[in-house]
Design a protein that fits this description.
alpha/beta
């Protein structure tokens, strides 16, 4: 079974407008709401691809009920822990010039809530896949992902996908994970350097492999992506198309590679699904369908890079 964990889910409120003027009345051209959070997005894309998963995390209040209802409409199973406070609302604004995100305030999560989550993690079985995605709420300790990974170590061949950042990521990656998916900015933050060139991206990704990530998938937006492990390094292209929104494309990339892994593909072939999935989402309103993702597969180009 595939499990996705979203510690900090939200209602994502998308607004499309010509421009955003601070302090003025702004007109919205189009808007829609979705249950959001990185792990939830992964579950949704996997469902679009015909792959079942169970969404884990915390939900509370009327916003939490909306999130669970949205997943139910998708046909996604969940095992959310109920909180007394409302889940957050994030606002995502797209204008003709750029995209702006406003993160809502996270609800409080108690140690009792965490203990329930860890007991759920304890039920994960051999050969399952667990995707740890997104930020850690301020009320939760930074070592939460480390504690979760340690809970799986008594099982055989549980693949951990880690897609987070900052201190929670730094602590967790040392526990040894199957794959991490930083973007260029997150890789730069991790190493405290401004990483620019493809050579530097691969060099630092190899250092992240040494730190505990068996595979490193680096998303680079319109410049493509890189896949690095201890033996090989690859650069993938970004197929041409009309950008609708980059929101969710990184999560779709994770879903794409997990889809490939779930079909017993090798990591390189799974990587091609990751690129196609991210690309199709960037060119869609919302998350990609299987058909749209599949339409990009023959446009994917992956080149091996020789770096010592």
């Amino acid at each position: 079974m595939i499990y996705t964990l979203t510690l900090n889910p939200a209602i994502d409120y998308y607004m499309d407008m010509n421009k955003l003027d601070e302090g003025e009345l702004n007109k919205v051209n189009n808007s829609y709401t979705l249950a959001g959070g990185k792990g939830i997005n992964v579950s949704k894309v996997l469902k679009n691809f015909g792959v079942e998963s169970i969404a884990l995390g915390f939900c509370g209040g009327f916003t939490g009920e909306y999130i669970k209802s949205d997943l139910n409409k998708y046909g996604i199973k969940d095992n959310f822990i109920t909180l007394s406070e409302n889940s957050r609302i994030n606002v995502k604004i797209k204008t003709t010039k750029n995209e702006t995100e406003i993160m809502g305030k996270s609800p409080n999560i108690s140690q009792e809530n965490i203990d329930v989550l860890l007991s759920i993690i304890d039920s994960i079985k051999d050969n399952d896949i667990l995707i740890l995605s997104g930020s850690v709420p301020i009320s939760v300790k930074d070592d939460i992902y480390k504690d979760i990974i340690q809970k799986t170590k008594s099982k055989n061949n549980v693949k951990i996908i880690l897609d987070s950042r900052e201190n929670a990521f730094k602590i967790a990656v040392k526990e040894k994970v199957f794959l991490t998916k930083p973007n260029r900015k997150e890789l730069s933050e991790y190493f405290g350097n401004d990483i620019r060139s493809v050579y530097d991206i691969i060099t630092y990704a190899k250092e992240l492999v040494k730190d505990g990530s068996e595979n490193v998938l680096v998303s680079l937006g319109k410049e493509g992506s890189a896949l690095v492990n201890k033996d090989e390094a690859y650069i993938g292209n970004a197929p041409n198309g009309q950008l609708v929104s980059s929101v969710g494309s990184g999560d779709a990339m994770v879903a794409g590679i997990v889809y490939g892994i779930s079909k017993d593909l090798n990591i390189l072939d799974a990587y091609k699904y990751a690129i196609a999935s991210a690309t199709a989402t960037a060119f869609s309103e919302g998350l990609t369908s299987f058909e749209k993702m599949n339409s990009f597969l023959d446009k994917i180009e992956v080149k091996k890079i020789n770096v010592k």
